[in-house]
Amino acid sequence: MSGEGLKAALPSAAEMAVCFREPSKRGAFLERIVRHYAGLRTAVPKPARKDEPVIRAYSRLMSRLRTEEQSVLEILDSFARGDAASVREAASRLTRL
User: What is the mean pLDDT of residues 53-60?
Assistant: First the structure.
C-alpha cells in the first residue's frame, strides 16, 4: 500500500479535546476523520466475486473499519460535549477491536 489516499491523518486526542473550548474546530476534525477512513476503504481493492474466502476477509475488514470510524467519531462528539466518561467508554471499545 503506497499511502496515496491516506494523506488525512486522524486528529490526536489532544486536538479533539480542544473542541470543548472551541466548538468551531469540530467540523474540521470531523472532515479529517471521515477523509481518513474513506482513504483506508478505497485503498483496499474489492476482491473477485468467485474468491469466497477473500470476500469474507474483505467484509470483516470493511466492517471493522466502519466500527472503528464510529468509535473515533463518538470520541470526537464526547470531547465536544466535555463528557469524559463517554470518551473513556468509546476509547475502551476502540482498544478492544
Answer: 93
Q: Rounded distance, CA 93 to CA 87, Å?
A: 10
AA identity, residue 47:
P
Please name which of 16, 15, 36 lies closest in space to residue 87, comparing C-alpha atoms. 16
- Which is it for the CA torsion 11, 16, 22, 27, positive or negative? positive
Instruction: Report how far residue 52's alpha carbon sits from residue 58's, in angstroms, rounded to the nearest whole number.
Output: 10
Indicate the pTM of the whole model. Answer: 0.83
3-state percent helix, strand, coil for the chain, nearest multiple of 5: 75, 0, 25
How far is Cα 56 from Cα 46, in angstroms, rounded to an integer? 11
470531523: which residue's cell?
Answer: 30
Sign, Cα dihedral of 76, 79, 85, 91 = positive
Instruction: Give CA–CA dist 12/57, Å, rounded.
Output: 29
Phi, psi of 89 (to 5 degrees): -65, -45
